[in-house]
What we know:
Rossmann fold
Amino acid sequence: MQPGKRLVGKVAIVSGGASGIGAETARAFALHGASVVLCDVQDDLGQAVAREITDAGGIAEYRPLDVCSEDQWMAIVAATEKTYRRIDILGNIAGISGRAAGMTVQLGTIAGVALHEQTLESWNRIIAVNATGTFLGTKSVIPAMQRAGGGSIINISSICGIIGSFANAAYHASKGAVRIFSKSAAIQYAKDQIRVNSIHPGFVDTPMARPGLLGNESGPARMAATPLGRFGKPSDIAMGCLYLTSDEAAWVTGSELVIDGGMTAN
């Protein structure tokens, strides 16, 4: 293994790239030499991240993307391959928590709602963004990666895709789907040298998760459940993404990388 940049010459698409884990992953990929197309529905934030990367000497551009739209995924992939001649990396990072819109501080220990209070509309929305969005992104890049001779797909699941909790069953279901979907895709496309792995963050300080970290009950409970004694940072997860997309992980596929400060070891 040689020191230095780890993704030189590679082309990456990162969904959810405007903030949190997605933005930090886009920065890490660009720092290590990749050309990055970061996508989101938060246009101003996404454009700011792309400018930050290019101002620092990296290669990046922002494109709006609704991950629930197959047509938009296909357009992103076509435009990226046309511009950069290949696609090597996909980070399926976009996701939603299922908390009420506009919530800034979680009340009580329960994220989302109890199962008997879950509406079909909210269930479908969470599944659509977190699970179907991951499917569509993966499906869309496979032909381009086959043409490139291989690639690496990173699907962000969660510790909630491995263990249960008090509530937010739709979120758990969506992240569990991402976990096992990744294993199936890894097996199907190993012959094409396309690697597919899932990452399972614990409690990470991102805009999506922050209401639970700030709650008077939920915050201390989450900290107490984390043996390393701090909440994760987006960079903690981005470094996992960087490893799985690098050539150092050339023999890693169908795996689940847990980055949770030791929570699930309890």
